[in-house]
Amino acid sequence: MRTMRTEERSQVAEPRDAGAPRRRRARPRDDRRAAWIFLIPAIAGFVIFYGYPTVRGFWYSLTDYNLLTDPAYVGGDNYAQLVRDPQFWHSLTVTGYYVLINIGSQMLLGLLLAALMHRLTRSVMLRAMLLLPWLVPNVTVGLLWIWLLDADLGFVNHLLKALGLGTVGFFVSPDWAMPTIAMVNTWAYTGYTALLLYAGMLQIPQHLYESAAIDGAGELRMFRSITLPMLRPVLALVLVVSLIGSFQIFDTVAVVAGGSGESSAIRVIYYFIYQQAFKYFHMGYASAAALTLALILGVLTVVQMRLLRASRSDLA
Amino acid sequence: MRRIAKIGRLPAWAILAVALVLTLFPFYWMVRTALTPAADLYSDSGALFPQNPTMVNFQRILGLTTQEEARAAGGSGAQIDFARYLLNSVVYSGLIATLQTFFCAMAGYAFARLRFPGRELVFGIMIAALMVPPIFTLLPNFVLVKSLDWVNTFAGMVAPSILMTPFAVFFLRQFFLSIPRDVEEAARLDGNGAWGVFWRIVLPMSRGPLITIGLTTTVWAWKDYLWPLLVGREEETRVLTVALGVFLQQSPNTRPDWTGLMAGSTLSVLPVLLLLVFLGRRLVQSLNFSGIK
């Protein structure tokens, strides 16, 4: 959800009149009554489904809670247990492994596609087609690839056989499962990443390329000396936003686990929390793990906000 | 802009073409499999076209055939009703997208234009919620919905999303700040109250951003899996994503019912494909931000 919404965050125009003098009349208008009426739904939604659960989540993390009996306060026990839980650390490692492969490949391929589109075409049609995998539910994406990569009947394994290579149990083998899921999500999100980077590239003044061409610079040189440095703020922002999204991988893992059985090789942190909460009903423990994840993502979000501000001054 | 030497362009276009094929081929394979009779699945598994194309897979997952016919066509015989799940998905995303957009527009307008004490403070607190990852609020929200006895009701499914999301409030406020004040002031002098200005002047002026937010919210809700899985697993509220997950696990033997699964997958792709065909330009250009400013 976070990833998919980045674009508008940036599309929004700067507030023009923030802090500007508002006083045109003798007495400033006071819309107090109207304002609170306008805000009733949003405030209700915020308090009930964001504010209150945040406090509750924090409280649960300090309790032993199984959904049936009332939460019992246990202090920092959940956190102490978490630190000693090899499964928790393993799930963090698995997530890191996933993020590394997914973000690495997705950013590189996205950059390549964006740069090519930027120098070749403005086609909306092409961009729309590249965006299609991002519009499709992750569950569907997972199913498509489980089928394409099926060890016996999958199309990809037919190809491998035709090439004289052996078949691979992509989702079944513990060594292959996580990289496969990472690449499946790279397939789903590369077009989207490319479009964001492409939009950033459109902001680079065209005359830079024109004068570089007059000076005899080749495409690679232009990419290195103009595109990359000028794109840096956008690139950094897209990277952090993608990272935040990537850490929260769940759907694809859940589908694969449902299809070929769950294994520790693909138990990412979100899935760990999900299992603790809804399979073992360790609500308190799950909340402690969720809070830990929230802290990790919080650090990334702070970085994101800083970049957002930095990019403003850079490209303004 | 088009300064790449003619010869250099060819490999560049070739890479784009490969990317396009890699992007679209899985969808082709999905449709191809959905049109293949289950009996041909094995013999046809490497063929680019189905030898005996059929609509029976769609018919059976939509509940248009009898149980016996469905089983004969490769189904497990388990109750499966994708027409209902499709409808549920449409209701789920439609409700969330329209209500959330409307309520967030109201809030965004109040934060952008109305004057009241505490405005910046309340706005700041709401925006701070952007920092809280969904999984953290998801557990307590589940407990809340459960205690209200709203599990497996549409109320429980949509409640956390219809009133607001911090991001939509922020986005729409930023837009409302950017529209010229003069029009609103004039409408005020004509005797309109805050609501009149908002309803008659501001909303009609804001169609673009409202559609953008509505569209992205629709897509988000369409893709949503974890929350509906927890809160709406039963038949009555089951959405497509949850149904596909259940369908995969219901496999009769060791082998999943791939022709049926791919027919179901096709149903989950068709609506977004329509969205892309009719609103593709807007969707693509909404990613076309005017610089990260």
TrEMBL record, chain B:
The chain crosses the membrane at residues 12-31, 90-112, 121-142, 154-176, 197-222, 258-279. GO terms for cellular component: plasma membrane. Residues 86-279 form the ABC transmembrane type-1 domain. Pfam families: BPD_transp_1. It comes from the Bacteria. Keywords: Cell membrane, Membrane, Sugar transport, Transmembrane, Transmembrane helix, Transport. It is found in: Cell membrane. GO terms for biological process: transmembrane transport. It is a multi-pass membrane protein. InterPro entries: MetI-like, MetI-like_sf. Its main location: membrane. Belongs to the binding-protein-dependent transport system permease family. This is Multiple sugar transport system permease protein.
